[in-house]
TrEMBL record:
Transmembrane portions of the chain: none
Matching InterPro entries: Ribosomal_bL28/bL31-like_sf, Ribosomal_bL31, Ribosomal_bL31_B, Ribosomal_bL31_sf
Single annotated GO MF: structural constituent of ribosome
GO (cellular component) term, any one: ribosome
Protein name: Large ribosomal subunit protein bL31B
Keyword entries, A-Z: Ribonucleoprotein, Ribosomal protein
Subunit structure: Part of the 50S ribosomal subunit.
Keyword Mitochondrion (UniProt): no
């Protein structure tokens, strides 16, 4: 691989403010120079006592309806029966 062409890869905190949920992971959005292009300006102190860049997200697995179990199931059977009543073949 070529040297010095890949973005920096470091620790960053992703925070979902709507669910009060945060997780620490590695990402190319972290850097030593906070505020650079595509880099988070804010930092947060994590449970290990270190300070990490933080990225606020609108939705995560803690607040998405699919993962929380609050997703609605669409009634497809009723729609198919309604279609067949309207446009189905007549005997």
């Amino acid at each position: 691989m070529k040297n010095d062409i890949h973005p920096e890869y470091g620790w960053v905190v992703f925070r979902d403010a709507s669910a009060d949920f945060a997780f620490l992971t590695r990402s190319t959005l972290s850097a030593d120079n906070a505020g650079g292009p595509g880099r988070p300006e804010k930092t947060v102190e994590w449970t290990d006592g270190k300070s990490y860049p933080v990225i606020d997200v609108e939705i995560s697995s803690a607040s998405h309806p699919f993962y929380t179990g609050t997703a609605r199931v669409v009634d497809t059977a009723g729609r198919v029966e309604k279609f067949n009543r309207r446009y189905g073949r007549k005997s």
